[in-house]
Write the structure tokens for this entry.
Amino acid sequence: MASSNCLANYYQRALRADEVLAQIDTYYPTGPTLHQLAPLDQLHIGGMAASNRLLARLDPATHPRVLDIGAGLGGLMRLGASLGFKMTGLDITHGFSALNQALTTRVKLPNSPPLAWVTGNASAQPFADNCLDAVLFQHSLLNMPDPAKVIAQSHRVLRPGGQLVMHEIISGPNVAQLRYPVPWAATPEHSHLLTLTALTDLLQAGGFTIEHVDDWSDTALAWRQQQRQKEQTPRQAILSPQWVFGEQFLSMGKHLVTNLTQRAIKVVEIHVSC
């Protein structure tokens, strides 16, 4: 429990939730679009394009009930709902879950299934057995100290034929050179990166069948370099990751480029089934 509280405190330490909502209400009085929210709520490498690609691995007609583990501020959830998925978000950080809900009330999602939010631990998921069709991880397993337990819980809540799709940061061949801070950790304390082999072995040991593995690292680096140029442009963005991570995000963004370039980290997509 202590480590869970520390992780939640890490993510909440610089979060300016009230200011975020005031900013949105000022600049988007009729409600922001998903694209307008993306600089704030698509905090993973690759942005909205990566989320679209992740969701494209699933079909809302056959796998409608989807759990987003580590939902953060809900960018993936709202995008999934707009495509017809019944999204539930699980996050250990209550401040994120609360702001996620508040953002959703401001976004127009006509004819989309309602969203649900749960503050909880992925190692002890508060859901019934076989109740979900799909589980998503997007830059979230990297914070979890017991990935085997998280994977076992994910298998438990999925029905037979259920799907699990990951868009994750993993350790690269030069992980010893990893520079901090990065968005998911200021120090090694909260960083739990696995090698690709270790991760796929855990998934198979947890009862999953590997369907697809893809290395996104080159695409991730190109996207992050482009974002870095935008972040260095002397203009005031309406929304940005700094509203979540504070001024330290400038160092985080720089280190992501360095870590990808030096192959301290890699970015992968993994699709498995029960």
